[in-house]
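DM from R.C. (forwarded with permission)

"hey, sorry to bug you on a friday — could you get me a structure for this? deadline for the figure draft is monday and I only need the backbone to look sensible"
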Amino acid sequence: MSSGGPGSHPLVTITRLVLPGPSPTARDAVLLCAGLARLYEDGATAVECDAGAVTAPGLGVVEVLARLRVAAGGRALRVTGAGPELRALLELVGLLQLFGEAEEREPAVGVQEGVEPGDPPL
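My reply, with the result:
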């Protein structure tokens, strides 16, 4: 990847922040947020939060990840290495977007995605 010049993409430095296992708590959030701030201050443009050690996810890890998202302040932050239990919990509380995936939602009832000529009115 190159940097500079019109139409080019800036170099992205991805740095890893590791969540403690088996289940991080709100107390861990303070240290992790400080570590995240240091990573960005040191020039990281994107941070991957490795959740591989989280084997007993609970509301503590939800709080940690929510605080990290706020501390990132719009900068790139993505969760990697999460098991199915953590992914399900984050989906339940609306934080699945931390994986860099768009949330898939059902279309609203009675809304058509497109109208073809000759379609009967609803």
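R.C.: lifesaver. The first strand starts at residue 14 and ends at 18.
me: no worries. Confidence is low (pLDDT under 50) at residues 1-5, 102-108.
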